[in-house]
Amino acid sequence: MSETMPKDENRNDGPGFPADFIWGAATAAYQIEGAWDVDGKGESIWDRFAHTPGKVRGGDTGDVACDSYHRFAEDIALVKAMGLGSYRYSIAWPRVQPGGRGGANPKGMDYYRRLTDAVLEAGLRPLVTLYHWDLPQELEDAGGWANRDTAARFGDFANLVADGLGDRVRHWVVLNEPKTFTSTGYWLGVHAPGRSDPRAFLRATHTANLAQGLGFRALKAHRADCEVGSAFDVAPMYPKSPAYRDIAAAERWHRFLNLWFLLPALHGRYPDGVLPVEEIDDLLGFLPGDDQRIKAPFDFVGLNYYSPWLVSDAPQGCDIPGLNCIGEWARGRGTLPKTDIGWDIDAQGFEDILLRMREETGNLPIEISECGAAFNTGPGADGEIDDQARIDFLRRHLQAMARAMQRGVPVRAFHHWSLLDNFEWAEGYSQRFGVVHVDFEHAQARKLKASGHWYARVAADHAIR
Known about the structure:
The protein has helices at about 30, 45-50, 70-80, 95, 105-120, 135-140, 150-165, 180-185, 200-220, 245-260, 260-265, 280-285, 290-295, 345-360, 390-405, 450-460, and strands spanning about 20-25, 85-90, 125-130, 170-175, 225-235, 235-240, 300-305, 310-315, 325-330, 365-370, 410-415, 435-440, 445-450. The chain is α/β, with parallel strands linked by helices and about 475 residues long. An 8-stranded parallel beta barrel has the order 1-2-3-4-5-7-10-11, surrounded by 4 helices. A 3-stranded mixed sheet has the order 6-8-9, covered by helices on one side. Strands 12-13 form a two-stranded antiparallel sheet. Helix 7 packs parallel to helix 9 and helix 8 runs antiparallel to helix 9. The radius of gyration is 21 Å and the shape is globular.
């Protein structure tokens, strides 16, 4: 914890940030906790998916992951040692409510109380995510997010968590990346629960929006002064050509991927021009009164950014009714450098999407709830991890964020994804996003990377060096 790096006096000062700007790091329960079947925890869809042969690279699972269930004090100490102010972590739904119904599991709730108390004792702000993709398997067996009843079950879960942690936590994220967990889980089938059913996917998006509204109201009912948002993964949608048809397709894709969960929360409606007007209610399972049920007047908006999309018109359509466009993620403008997972590095896209999203969020505070990159640099002969590529990535993206802030985008916080190298969903342990190296072969030993030292200096100086 006492490791330091000397300042590089040859670097010119970069953009400065307000003195009250919040620097943080983010994690997610299934990706770091391990302890998948201890202390009464139920099975999640990711437990089932990862234990199914062929679903995760290398046959990896989150059974142990970073073992943060037992080592959370070390993780919090790392956040504090970097001088950060905010720690974002999530609640594993089946750890609190094993089957997705009924009362709270006392040992599970006690774990999150101890974790939160440790965060507070370290002088950090807890930013707690209610749902980061680990649906109880019993609810999936009953239809999962495609079943409208799952929203009601989520509302019950939110009440349990608010009752257990509401006296400790003021800042909440209701859902993490609802666009991604519904599309990859129910349409594309590459993430848990591994279904490939476009109509189930559309129903799942509406159920998630209902859950978002219920979760928001549950948290507010327990503590009126809490601040509640959701974390939306957003990206600029660049047309593949200057042709009008591709420009129009990029706009449709923007509304579908960037606004599908934001507009319902803020305005109680879905974006126009995506699904056929005459079919949308049936496709989504939209019922009278849902325009009010899906509302969640957020106190802030969380945005996650990784890479842009390239979009073209698709006159032939696709398996989503009326959606006549095709998007290619991580294939941006021209030839761009890539991360080790193959995603385009496009810091300008970060500035572009922040400016575009402000058109929808207005003066609501924005927190960057995730931004980071996979670079798989390991320890050198001296044991140090010199991940200069991640430092370069961060420098460019923080500069882009600063430019957007100078142009009026009200960003108040930045959370690096991730604090730790962890279980990276279907990629298993093959991709490393952390500013902390985790040695998965030797008892999950942690070591701060060069990028972690660099990020600590940014947080201390409120400036990019």
